[in-house]
Amino acid sequence: MTRSVTPDVPALTGTHVNGALPRREPDFGDVHAAAERLNDQARRTPLLTDTPLDSQCSRRVLLKLETLQHTGSFKFRGAYNRLVQIEMAQRPAGVVAFSSGNHAQGIAAAAARLNIPATVVMPSDAPRLKLQNTRALGAEVIEYDRRKENREDIAARIAAQRGSVLVPSFDDPDVIAGQGTAGIELAEQAAAASIELDDVLVPCSGGGLVAGIALALHELSPRTRVWCVEPGEFNDHQLSLRAGQRVRIQPSRPSICDALLAPEPGEITFEINRRLLAGGLSVTDDEVRQAIGYAARELKLVLEPGGAVALAALLARPLPIAGRSVAIVLSGANIDPAMLAGILAP
Question: Among the four residues 106, 130, 300, 343, which has the most C-beta atoms within 10 Å?
């Protein structure tokens, strides 16, 4: 286990390395500023109510459809918020990211809008749909073997050689703030429907999405409890929250949740999440498959495995939460057609 130490928080001004902002912990002001930057760029995704889940779960269930965001996941929010702040003189050198797929597509889409060259380091066993979509959006894809190579090292080397900006997938203040705009929308949409949010369940890997949403709800709906949800073999946040410090896991088997395979919480994200989250939940791959099938058959929604874990937690077992309403973030829809067909086969 690795103890996380809160770094000194520098001001926004100061020395930048390859266009990178100093590492710092974002706050609600950063999330609000991100919402201004994303206005007319990111979609304001729907909050779905009045579904069969209400009667099945004996409570009001709200579904935040980040599956309908650009590129089919929430990742466009953080990617655009980070890239749009790169100085014009730095943009021709491009950006470099590493991702199993959704951050890759978000970076590629944001870079295309801003006319910034993008390179993404992706595992060779990433879903083919995500690899194809990232290339189709104009990014250069460099594949690696996740069993033998380190993606962070590869990306850092490329960024240093080219003078590019390195954009992490979650442990970056502007990426976190961009993801938090989904939380602002969730709070506003629930308030407009006169619904008080008791609990919110958010898929979690490195923790950027749940950290950003927690920052937003802590300000706009402070009584709401926010929970992270992970695959059972990759429950590093759940274990870290229990331990009070960052825990690095060593999974005994892989998971179908390719978007949620971080072995350890981010330094910045965990500092936020250990203060603001109510706790962590985890689900099995079989429970995720059941949630994907339920979403397709009963809700008429397409979910990828990582995007379905919060719904899986709601469906699979009684949760350690009690209240009148729960919001579920459906964070991604980029599932390979063959996998979806296999799950739906009788």
Answer: 106
Q: How far is CA 317 from CA 101, 312, 320, in A?
A: 29, 9, 9
Q: What is the pTM of this model?
A: 0.91
Instruction: State the amino acid at position 141 in one-letter form.
Output: V
The range of the structural domain enclosing residue 329 comes to 28-73+172-344
CA angle in degrees (0–180, nearest 5) for 288-71-17 = 105
Which residues make beta-bridge pairs with 51? none
Give the tens place of pLDDT for each residue, 157-215. 999 999 999 999 999 999 999 999 999 999 999 999 999 999 999 999 999 999 999 99
- Nearest partner of 274 among 211, 330, 322, judged by Cα: 211
**Two structure tokens written together for 35:** 């919402």
Structural domains in the chain (count): 2
Q: Are residues 100 and 243 in the same domain?
A: no
Q: Would residue 17 count as lying in a domain?
A: no
Task: Indicate which CATH number applies to the domain containing 133.
Answer: 3.40.50.1100
Asked if 276 and 225 touch (Cβ cutoff 8 Å), the reply is no
Amino acid (1-letter code) at residue 271: E
- Do 195 and 133 share a domain, yes or no? no
pLDDT of residue 261: 92
Q: Which residues contact 150 (CB under 8 A, 6 or more apart)?
A: none
Of 269, 270, 310, the closest CA to residue 287 belongs to: 310
User: Can you read off the two tokens belonging to residue 206?
Assistant: 């490195």
Among 237, 331, 335, smallest CA distance to 282 is for 237
* Number of residues that this document lists for the chain: 346
